[in-house]
Amino acid sequence: MTPDNPTAMRVDLQLIANMIDPNTRVLDVGCGNGALLEYLWRNKQVDGRGIEISTEGVQACLSSGLSVVQGDIEKDLSNYPDDAFDYVILSQTVQAMMDPRGVLEQTMRIGRRAVVSLPNFGYWRLRLYMLLHGRMPVSENLPYEWYNTPNIHFCTIRDFVRLTRHMNLTIEQSLFLDEAGTSKTIGSSTAAANWFGEQAVFLLRK
Amino acid sequence: MTKDLNGSDTGKKNYANTAYADGPWTLPGERVRLAEDVPLPLDCGVELSAIDIAYQSWGELNADQSNAILICHALTGDHFVVGEHPITGKAGWWETVVGPGKVIDTDRYFVICSNILGGCMGSTGLQSNNPETNTPWGRDFPVITIGDMVRAQKRLIDHLGIEKLFAVVGGSMGGMQTLEWACQFPDHVFAAVPIATAARHSAQNIAFHEVGRQAIMADPDWCKGNYLAEGKFPHRGLAVARMAAHITYLSEPALTRKFGRNLQDREAVTYGFDADFQVESYLRHQGSSFVDRFDANSYLFITRAMDYFDLANRYDGHLTNAFKDTNVRFLVMSFTSDWLYPTHESREIVHALNAGAANVSFVEIESDKGHDAFLLDEPEFHKVFEGFLEGCAEHRGLERNGS
């Protein structure tokens, strides 16, 4: 993506960016090549930091003028002080964690707010795939086989909402993306979102 | 003349008769006298007035003086970063990183490197005259610290009229100086790149240094530190110190790849103590060539400075407070096979900076070359380093490369 052409950014990243106020401090956990952080820096004057495990990702971030620490999310979040950031972003990350709840707890500790995006395993095509084929779904968005997927803790939108309740978190805003790529608000009943959302984005507060 | 480890003359000159005994200073580069009006206070309590600092620079300082990079050299390094070394005739120690179009691009940046205070390549050190006695300081030279070295460098930067360095960079002991710069002079540093280093010297590293020092002091030619006056030089002790240290700069895989158990110019072992193995021959060469260019007492004093380095100690053990409210942009780098300054020590720096909400990046570079990787051809290291400087240049308002 280029900063001048934000429409080229992954759709869920654009939704996340929209939830973040300008001139704030942001940590992007699992920031990849830094596309979101660079967008936030150039368009919202955000003071951004990233954590990324791959050297290629870190290198791309540094070349873009971003500050990124190479590290393991599940080990390194504990080193940040409480309320160090206005927002901590987990984009398509929680489902790849060994301990998603632990990571979310750390996220809410070091950030005043968290923005979480995740794939919805309750999406109707995935349910149908399992029903018809009796096999773990493989799709354009989820191209991995069960034995090589990094996504080791899949959940549905409803599962995630339930976890936020267990953790006494407030959902300030929640959106789902349907297959046309249109974003819609997740209502108090999660039913429609859970059937028709391919992905969801949550803005959480302690 | 230099002798080999068995005491035979090698026919070569050694440090004592190349650099100083031959008369007036003749090495290339600049040398300035500083601290004439305001003495330099040292951590040990002594004040030094009128110090000489030898340095070299490359590139051009831009109009608003925002493109200056200070390179801090390591224990046995010097300010001959690129180009032929005046004593050894070998290439500079950081040719892989510094030069036109390289990571530290001398077409773009004004690059400075000075010989450390207490060094033996032209800056005030043990071989300089003590103004009170008008004889060389020798062992009476005050025990300097990394902090002292950096305060001396600051005087040089002031002398050059540079208010704020674009970057301070260095590996190993150079990394310690880089951290000191960021700690002592945060408003005069835009970016800091400590490489393969630590915020304090570990017990293991102090132990290795002690082996080296004991080797020097056990050499009868050390003459209780008075060898210059007695016309001698503890070449055997210094060579052994270098050999022991050199092992710590490498790694087991690197030694195996380079030498394995290969024999040196022979078909079978000799059932004796000649250098049967290539690795022995290599180490002996490292030791004997080192004494050509380095002073034994300087080695004692500089290793001591490294041993004393413990940045958090001045802040009641809280490293975070060493960088409180800092605006310096940091890039910390380590190498996977570096067992002298292992990655976890770099991570401690990163965690301390994170805890203080500092602007820090960190990368661990995959390499099997050990501590010396930062001096060698490591493309990934160079790419990350270059990317960081490029990003900083944008934040500093310097033109992007090629734009």
* Name of the CATH architecture of chain B: 3-Layer(aba) Sandwich
Assembly state (oligomeric) = heterodimer
> CATH homologous superfamily of chain A?
Vaccinia Virus protein VP39
Let me know the average pLDDT of chain B: 92
Count the DSSP helices of chain B: 11
Largest interface: A-B, 21 and 27 residues
Separation, N- and C-terminal Cα atoms of chain B:
54 Å
As for the number of domains of chain A, it is: 1
Q: Report the top-level CATH class of chain A.
A: Alpha Beta
Computed CA radius of gyration of chain B, to the nearest angstrom? 21 Å
Question: Care to count the β-strands of chain B?
Answer: 14
Question: In words, what does this structure look like?
Answer:
The complex is a heterodimer of chains A (206) and B (403). Helices cover 33% and strands 24% of the residues of chain A. An eight-stranded mixed β-sheet of chain A has the order 3-2-1-4-5-8-6-7, sandwiched between helices. Chain A has helices at residues 11-19, 35-44, 55-63, 73-76, 100-110, 124-133, 157-166, 191-196, and strands at 25-29, 47-52, 67-70, 85-91, 111-119, 170-177, 183-185, 199-205. Chain A is of the alpha/beta class. Chain A has one domain: Rossmann fold, CATH 3.40.50. The two termini of chain A are 33 Å apart. In chain B, 50% of the residues are buried. Chain B is 33% helix and 16% strand. In chain B, the strands form four sheets. In chain B, strands 1-4-8-5-11-12-13-14 form an eight-stranded mixed β-sheet, sandwiched between helices. In chain B, strands 2-3 form a two-stranded antiparallel ribbon. In chain B, strands 6-7 form a two-stranded parallel sheet. Chain B is globular and about 65 Å long. Chain B is an alpha/beta fold and 403 residues long. The longest helix of chain B is centred in the C-terminal third of the chain and has 18 residues, at 379-396. Chain B has helices at 15-20, 146-159, 173-184, 203-218, 235-249, 252-258, 278-290, 296-308, 319-322, 343-355, 379-396, and strands at 30-34, 40-41, 47-48, 51-58, 68-72, 98-99, 104-105, 110-114, 129-130, 135-136, 165-171, 189-195, 329-335, 359-365. Chain B has a single domain, classed as Alpha/Beta hydrolase fold, catalytic domain (Rossmann fold, 3-Layer(aba) Sandwich). At the A-B interface, helix 3 and strand 3 of A face helix 10, strand 14 and helix 11 of B.
